[in-house]
Design brief:
The chain is mainly beta and 137 residues long. Helix content is 0%, strand content 42%. It has no helices and 13 strands. The strands form three sheets. It has a six-stranded antiparallel β-sheet, with no helix packed on it. Strands 2-8-6-4-5 form a five-stranded antiparallel β-sheet, with no helix packed on it. A two-stranded antiparallel sheet has the order 3-7. The radius of gyration is 14 Å and the shape is globular. The protein starts with a strand and ends in a 7-residue tail after the last strand.
């Protein structure tokens, strides 16, 4: 799983309508595609991440329901594309892909990096929260 809930996830599972032809893997970040459906997020996503997929599926029609976890107030363990540094703790970072964070990018500020896991400049897992009201959208 790419984004893994650590705590406060109880009661947050919902079935949400997704766009057609989406290859969704459990743990992927999902974003509003502007047409009322969720789609897999990308590194250029500049809208709040309200949901994480909790099942793997390839959607075959607009509106197909996918089991998701609401992200609000849920602490997540997340994978990074590179090792985190001490200075990046307590900062807002971007997605590198649908399943990873880019701790050196701060354009969209979709994820608050609370702290790193493991050794600084070596570890590639962090703890944090998805932001609300993304500052640069």
């Amino acid at each position: 799983m790419s984004f893994r809930p650590v705590n406060y996830e109880e009661g947050k599972l919902v079935a949400m309508p997704c766009a057609t032809t989406q290859t969704i893997v459990k743990g992927y970040a999902l974003a509003d595609n502007g047409s009322g459906y969720l789609a897999v997020a990308t590194s250029s996503t500049a809208v709040d991440i309200h949901y994480i997929a909790m099942q793997s599926v390839v959607t075959t029609a607009n509106g197909q329901l996918v089991l998701c976890l609401e992200t609000e107030n849920v602490l997540f363990e997340a994978d990074c594309t590179a090792a985190w540094t001490t200075a990046q703790q307590g900062t807002y970072v971007d997605l590198a892909s649908v399943s990873t964070l880019d701790t050196s990018a701060v354009t969209n500020q979709l994820f608050y990096l609370l702290k790193g896991i493991g050794v600084t400049a070596v570890g590639t897992k962090v703890l944090g929260y998805f932001t609300r009201g993304v500052p640069n959208t």
